[in-house]
Specification:
Length: 267
């Protein structure tokens, strides 16, 4: 009888040590003095900043709070509390005035509200990327990205936004593994298991963008991309309808451009 698909369990200490070695090697190769990253109060940025502190020390890590007017206060509080716990330097930059000025300067006859909402959401993500690189350039730091493997495989990130970074420390971990490792490293469970809501527009929730929770999504990703199984086999071994598995594969295929350098014609 076939075993159900599951996400592999981590050896927490070995994984953390391996990622810290990776972070230090990136810093040594680049000659950068430290790292900067945005702190959202979510599990991905929380784990990433904790690993950077473990790898480099608190004095070489800068955390940025970049809320919009609709950012939940709980997220801001969680980000502040973790920064204080880790003892890192922080900067607060509201993106509301910047995004208002940007969007007020544009006129678009487009009336597709969903498309406009997506465009505006991506502007906000890209503003945060620009701010991150402003501080990185000013201090000779690198920008640490916070995307995990689950998000990267389905293209659930903004190209040249939260996808714009110099290195991606947790890109090899599925979201469910990120949560488990975060808890192991002492990040509060309220953050480690907080629902993943991107908050790029008021009230945005993961369910608005994805048909599955990460608990269901991650085993599908393991089957499709680690074990190279056919969608029909993944559906059978996860007990998730084939249409959902095919949707995940479709998201991977149409988001390939996000994970690859811009195409160039043959020379």
């Amino acid at each position: 009888m076939e075993k159900p698909l599951k996400v592999p369990d981590l050896n927490f200490q070995r994984t953390a040590d391996k990622l810290c070695v990776f972070i230090r090697s990136i810093m040594e190769q680049s000659g950068a003095k430290g790292v900067v990253l945005g702190l959202s109060g979510g599990v991905d940025s929380s784990l990433t900043v904790a690993l950077c502190v473990h790898a480099l020390g608190k004095d070489r890590v800068l955390g940025l709070f970049m809320p919009a007017s609709f950012t939940p206060q709980q997220d801001t509080d969680d980000a502040h509390n973790l920064a204080e716990q880790l003892g890192i330097k922080t900067e607060f930059v509201s993106i509301q005035g910047i995004s208002d000025a940007f969007l007020n300067s544009l006129e678009l006859a487009q009336r597709d509200e969903r498309a406009i909402r997506r465009a505006v959401a991506n502007v906000r993500a890209r503003i945060r990327m620009v701010i991150s690189y402003y501080y990185a350039n000013a201090f000779n730091y690198l920008v640490a990205g916070t995307s995990d493997r689950s998000e990267l495989l389905i293209g659930f990130f903004t190209k040249h936004g939260d996808g714009g970074a110099d290195f991606l420390p947790i890109s090899g971990l599925y979201k469910t593994q990120v949560r488990a490792l975060a808890k192991h490293l002492g990040i509060p469970e309220t953050v480690a298991y907080k629902p993943s809501n991107p908050q790029l527009y008021p009230g945005q929730k993961l369910a608005d963008e994805l048909p599955l929770t990460y608990k269901d999504l991650d085993p599908i990703l393991v089957g499709l991309f680690d074990l190279k199984l056919l969608p029909e086999d993944v559906s059978r071994r996860t007990n998730i309808p084939l249409t959902f598995v095919e949707d995940v594969l479709h998201r991977y295929n149409v988001s390939e451009h996000k994970r690859s350098p811009p195409p160039q014609p043959p020379s």
